[in-house]
Amino acid sequence: MSNTPIAPPSPGPAAPAPGSATGAMIARQAIVDGQHGVVGYELFNRSRAHAEHTAASDVLLVFTALSHAGTEELIGKMLLFVNCTHESLSGGHLELVNPDKVVLEIPPLGHAAMEEVKARLPILAALRERGFRLAFNHQVLQSAYAPWLPLADYIKLDVSLLAPDQLAVLVRYAGRHSQARLIAEKIETAQQYGTVVALGVALFQGYWFARPTLVQAKLLSPSQASIVQLLNLLRNQASTEAIEEVLKKDAGLAFNLMRLINSASLGLTGEVTSLRQAVLLLGLKKLFRWAALLLTAARNGGTPPTVGQTAVVRGRLMELLAREFLSPEEADQAFVIGVFSMLDQMLGMPLAPAVGLLNLPDELSAALLQRSNVMGQLLALVEACESGDDHGFDQAAQALPLTSQQINWAHLQALAWADQIGQG
User: Pick from 392, 340, 327, 329: which is nearest to 368 by CA?
Assistant: First the structure.
């Protein structure tokens, strides 16, 4: 067989299909202490109007924040204050959150009937028992909300609504009847700041300190068909191998899972470098909740865009070649590197910041960005296979213990494997 690599039957990478990469506009506003040090950020979903704030939008906001948790552009190591609806509080998405980082902002009820307040108490108590901190607005100090008051870690006082004498009464009452820390919000003037400081309030939020800043959080939407297939496998408690197979065949699934598993939101120590590791660490229950959550952000249509298909072929080819001379664990890593080498096209941003979203170990990042180490050499070889570059193929192949027959056969296998997408 010739040394010339087999060219893929389809055109080279194209621009991602509309909707394959989505950007959620998230605004964050700092919450500061008396020394103006930031203690946390409140997040707002700016991708939709305030009137469209629903349980579904809460879920999507938390999912996006989860995937970015620990990255400096969004929250760093600070507390995350997340607005909630009562409907979203019982959602399984909160099972994915490391409670230590999250403060759930609980809205008041439209009409504070004592029966309804008591009816919602078990859900709030269970969340706090799991380690979430709860924040309420000043209405929690009303007698109708007395059952909730012992659960309050933070109480927010809106200085745009409350007169100074009302603030004084509420601060004194909160001090006597709760252990909550008070946050004065909507502070826009030095006078308002001076008033709440004089009352003993120690945490602050408002334009006087910082206006909300926008962060465009990148999400790569997998196909709905892939997610449904994954959910069915998880519901039937399929093998790790079967679950990994589905993840490998959709670049969006692979990206989002690795993004989540390597974020600070799960509280894991050490980086996860393969999809098999991610499945084993997350477990079937959490993986099912994650997939169900991801379905809310999925694009319509079951066919991945061309660029996603090319990424999957690239990952599979790298995996098959790595199996010839590296360990099974390294072969798993090779698949991840192959798929994520096309993140720049999938996310519509330069490769370096795209790779930075994943918090990968240095050696994997170096393979992606500098084509260094054996993984980088494999990636260069696979790129030459795609392009039909004879010179690049020969140069890359000489650096690796692989024959042209092994490479060509692996390429055929990778193409056939990827063609099965959507048939299972």
Answer: 340
The pLDDT of residue 60: 60
Nearest alpha carbon to residue 201 among 218, 214, 187: 187
Which domains are assigned to the chain? Answer: 21-216 (3.20.20.450), 223-419 (1.10.3210.10)
Paired tokens of 351 = 């490769």
C-alpha 313: how far from its chain's center? 25
Q: What is the pLDDT of residue 301?
A: 42
In 371-403, alpha helices (H): 373-387, 390-398
Q: What is the pLDDT of residue 367?
A: 92
Please work out, in degrees rounded to the nearest 5, the angle formed at the alpha carbon of residue 358 by the alpha carbons of 354 and 363. 95
Residue 21 region by backbone torsions, left for phi larger than 0, else alpha for psi between -120 and 50, else beta: beta
Classify the C-alpha dihedral 38-42-43-46 as positive or negative.
negative
Instruction: Look at the chain and count its residues.
Output: 424
pLDDT score, position 142: 92
Helices 240-248 and 306-323: crossing angle in degrees, nearest 10, is: 130
Q: How far apart are CA 117 and CA 355, in angstroms?
A: 46
Q: Write the DSSP symbol of residue 14.
A: -
Helix/strand/coil for 41: strand
Q: Rounded distance, CA 383 to CA 422, Å? A: 25
For 213-251, letters b (16+ CB in 10 Å) and e give eebebbbbbbbebbbebbbebbeeebeeeebbbbbbbbb
Residues of the chain with pLDDT under 50: 1-20, 49-51, 70-74, 299-304, 422-424
Please say whether the beta carbons of 355 and 369 come within 8 A. Answer: yes
Which helix (DSSP H) or strand (DSSP E) does residue 419 occupy? helix 404-419
Helix (H, G, I), strand (E, B) or coil at 236: coil
The Cα–Cα gap between 75 and 69 comes to: 6
The model's pTM: 0.59
Nearest-10 Cα torsion for 54, 60, 103, 157: -40
Tell me, letter by letter, the H, E, C secondary structure of 6-26. CCCCCCCCCCCCCCCEEEEEE
